[in-house]
């Protein structure tokens, strides 16, 4: 059994790719103008939601921006700054939900349109079983600007089906979580679809189809939770995990009831 998670605005309260604009600026890979443009794009992204047109435009801009970058340098920058940049952005509710799935023996998979050089280390930090992300073509150790695989929209559903075939997941018994209406194909391939802070279009679809809506609103440092867990923090974490599990149980019972009728 598997639990498939979108990354941006589902697990973390931001865009993972754009979150690294500052260290890329410091290392000279992007200009100050490009960094400011990225910050503006992130603002628009957070305020208006990642519909297909905006996401595609951002993908094209990021692809053009990174053409010629040294892949080893990018990986080094991400690894060196990962915890400082991403750690404070992780939703506590998402971290607890991931932990709940792992405790029940489910594989946790992160599916993201961001580049694999960013997504893979973030997934590892979160304790995910594996991840699938956008892959850029690399020629002589540098990005060519071409995309080998764009992990977006219908392709997330394709990736989920392939993972199920490769690892024996029962998709009917599996789970999926996302904030974006562009991920409806991924939600449709599992038996337990959940929406997280859904954009307007996905909220409407969730209402029409009876999909549960979860609200994640508490980004918190994973390191602070691990290094000095207070009694209150532990209680809150257990409570959130219990609520998530209850939501899953409720949805399963409701779904079976609807099916039987």
If strands are numbered along the chain, what order do they take across the biggest sheet? 4-3-2-1-5-6-7
Helical content band: 55-70%
Q: Characterize the biggest β-sheet.
A: 7 strands, mixed
Can you name the CATH architecture? 3-Layer(aba) Sandwich
* Number of strand elements: 7
CATH topology label: Rossmann fold
CATH class type: Alpha Beta
Strand content: 15-25%
Distance between the termini: 26 Å
Characterize this entry briefly.
56% of the residues lie in helices and 16% in strands. 39% of the residues are buried.
Task: Describe the 3D structure.
The chain has a single domain, classed as HAD superfamily/HAD-like (Rossmann fold). Helix content is 56%, strand content 16%. The chain is built from 12 helices and 7 strands. The protein has helices at 16-19, 21-26, 32-48, 52-66, 71-86, 92-103, 116-126, 154-167, 184-188, 200-209, 222-227, 231-260; strands spanning 2-5, 107-115, 130-139, 142-149, 175-178, 192-196, 213-214. Helix 6 packs across helix 12 (231-260). The longest helix has 30 residues, at 231-260. The two termini are 26 Å apart.
């Amino acid at each position: 059994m598997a639990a498939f998670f979108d990354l941006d605005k589902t697990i973390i309260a931001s865009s993972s790719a754009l979150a690294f604009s500052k260290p890329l600026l410091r290392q000279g890979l992007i200009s100050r103008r490009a960094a400011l443009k990225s910050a503006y794009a992130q603002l628009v992204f957070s305020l208006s939601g990642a519909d297909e047109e905006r996401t595609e435009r951002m993908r094209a801009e990021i692809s053009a921006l990174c053409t010629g970058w040294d892949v080893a340098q990018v990986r080094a920058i991400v690894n060196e700054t990962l915890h400082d940049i991403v750690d404070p952005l992780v939703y506590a509710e998402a971290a607890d939900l991931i932990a709940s799935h792992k405790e029940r023996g489910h594989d946790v998979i992160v599916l993201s349109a961001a580049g694999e050089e960013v997504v893979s280390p973030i997934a590892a930090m979160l304790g995910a079983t594996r991840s699938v992300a956008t892959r850029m073509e690399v020629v002589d150790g540098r990005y060519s600007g071409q995309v080998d695989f764009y992990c977006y929209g219908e392709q997330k559903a394709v990736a989920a089906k392939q993972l199920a075939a490769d690892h024996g997941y029962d998709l009917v018994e599996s789970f999926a979580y996302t904030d974006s209406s562009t991920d409806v194909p991924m939600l449709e391939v599992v038996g337990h679809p959940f929406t997280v802070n859904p954009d307007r279009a996905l909220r409407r679809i969730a209402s029409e189809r009876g999909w549960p809506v979860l609200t994640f609103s508490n980004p918190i440092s994973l390191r602070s939770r691990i290094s000095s867990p207070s009694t209150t923090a532990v209680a809150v974490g257990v409570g959130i995990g219990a609520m998530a599990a209850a939501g899953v149980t409720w949805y399963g019972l409701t779904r079976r009831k609807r099916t039987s009728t």
